[in-house]
């Protein structure tokens, strides 16, 4: 331990039972061999239910970090610290890092890794806030401790951007992105590995096979691209499916056109429950039912204002048109 470590935050006290194997220049790089040795030494067994698939291709760790465009004034949120390999890189690149890990055994390994690699006199460790626990309080809510840590880090770095950069646990990747986009302070950029299918959905355009409610929710607020499709072999253990690195850039001016984020989210979700049905019938039901003259009149006015064809379906409507549709629908429905 360096002398400066006596000053590091209390959550970074050196763990007593686990020890990261060290070479001369700190812990080895995260390869399959390194992880197997480390986990055997500390008696760690992987919990597949928690999406513990570690990124072991070092070029892709580079690509993930590079694609995020992190600067020293930025705040980065990482969900799933794992053994701390990505956390370490993020801490070198950013002003502050908030990292959250649900598995206490991994949280301890990540802490020890950061202490071991801290070659800048405790500064690296001081930049990292490790929140141990579930990043989600519920399916629809971020853990308050994580939100508070982000708030605190952003107040320390007022000139920086807030970036989500993570090899996300697949089981909770959708609620992580969706819930962040529902908060008053969403990310400026998100650069994440997710299931390939989810990556394609988040970046899909109207009329394509992948287009769904998530495409609209993300597409109405962000510009997005799939940076790279990843085969299972770049992770250990190998997942059964392909993954992708996805980059999202928040577009605040477009986001500001959404009058009520919660209402818009639920409107899109409800409409996509019937994505193959004609939109008119779905809207009439949402407006009060087809037995009701007022509902049919409301939807007729909405169609006229929107200039919709009778045969239009939800999957053909772009995210921006959805934002207009939602506003017009609620305006016309109000007495
Ligand atoms: N960052 C590491 C890497 O790139 O190799 C690990 C990524 S691994 C795909 C996902 C990590 O997220 C695991 O360490 C897992 O324990 C953690 N995790 C899973 N569900 C979580 C949750 N709800 N909240 C916080 N961490 C979670």
In short:
The protein has 335 residues and is an alpha/beta fold. The chain is built from 14 helices and 13 strands.
Low-confidence stretches: 1-17
Shape: elongated
Residue-averaged pLDDT: 91
Q: What fraction, in percent, of the residue positions are helical? A: 40-55%
Bound compounds: S-adenosylmethionine
Strand order of the largest sheet: 6-5-4-9-10-13-11
Largest sheet: 7 strands, mixed
End-to-end separation in angstroms reads 69 Å
Order of helices and strands: EEHEHEHEHHEEEHEHEHHEEEHHHHH
- Say how many strands there are: 13
Strand coverage percent: 15-25%
CATH superfamily of the largest domain: Vaccinia Virus protein VP39
Could you explain the architecture of this structure?
The protein has 335 residues and is α/β, with parallel strands linked by helices. The protein has two domains: 253 residues, Vaccinia Virus protein VP39 (Rossmann fold, 3-Layer(aba) Sandwich); 73 residues, rRNA adenine dimethylase, C-terminal domain (Helicase, Ruva Protein, domain 3). Strands 6-5-4-9-10-13-11 form a seven-stranded mixed beta sheet, sandwiched between helices. A two-stranded antiparallel sheet has the order 1-2. It has a two-stranded antiparallel sheet with strand order 3-12. The longest helix has 15 residues. It starts with 21 loop residues before the first strand and ends with a helix. The N terminus is likely disordered. Bound molecules: S-adenosylmethionine. S-adenosylmethionine (SAM) binds next to strand 3, helix 3 and strand 5.
């Amino acid at each position: 331990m360096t002398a400066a470590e006596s000053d590091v935050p209390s959550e970074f006290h050196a763990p007593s039972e686990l020890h990261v194997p060290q070479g001369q220049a700190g812990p080895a790089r995260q390869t399959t061999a390194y992880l197997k040795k480390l986990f055997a030494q500390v008696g760690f067994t992987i919990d597949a239910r928690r999406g513990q698939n570690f990124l072991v291709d070092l070029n892709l760790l580079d690509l993930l970090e590079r694609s995020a465009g992190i600067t020293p004034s930025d705040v980065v949120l990482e969900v799933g610290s794992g053994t701390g390999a990505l956390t370490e890189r993020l801490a070198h690149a950013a002003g502050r890092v908030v990292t959250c890990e649900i598995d206490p055994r991994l949280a301890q390994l990540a802490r020890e890794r950061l202490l071991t690699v801290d070659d800048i006199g405790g500064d690296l460790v001081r930049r990292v806030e490790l929140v141990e626990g579930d990043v989600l309080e519920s399916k629809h809510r971020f853990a308050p401790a994580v939100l508070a840590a982000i708030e605190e880090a952003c107040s320390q770095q007022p000139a920086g951007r807030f970036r989500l950069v993570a090899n996300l646990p697949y089981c909770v990747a959708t609620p992580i992105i969706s819930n962040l986009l529902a908060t008053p302070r969403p990310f400026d950029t998100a650069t994440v590995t997710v299931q390939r299918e989810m990556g394609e959905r988040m970046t899909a355009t109207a009329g394509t096979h992948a287009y769904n409610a998530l495409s609209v929710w993300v597409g109405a607020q962000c510009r997005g691209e799939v940076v790279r499709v990843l085969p299972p072999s770049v992770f250990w253990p190998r997942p059964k499916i392909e993954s992708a690195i996805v980059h999202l850039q928040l577009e605040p001016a477009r986001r500001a056109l959404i009058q009520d984020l919660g209402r818009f989210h639920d409107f899109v979700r409800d409409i996509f429950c019937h994505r193959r049905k004609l939109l008119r019938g779905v809207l009439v039901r949402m407006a009060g039912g087809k037995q009701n003259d007022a509902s049919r009149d409301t939807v007729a006015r909405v169609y006229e204002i929107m200039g919709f064809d009778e045969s239009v379906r939800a999957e053909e409507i772009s995210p921006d048109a959805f934002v207009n549709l939602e506003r017009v629908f609620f305006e016309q429905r109000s007495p």
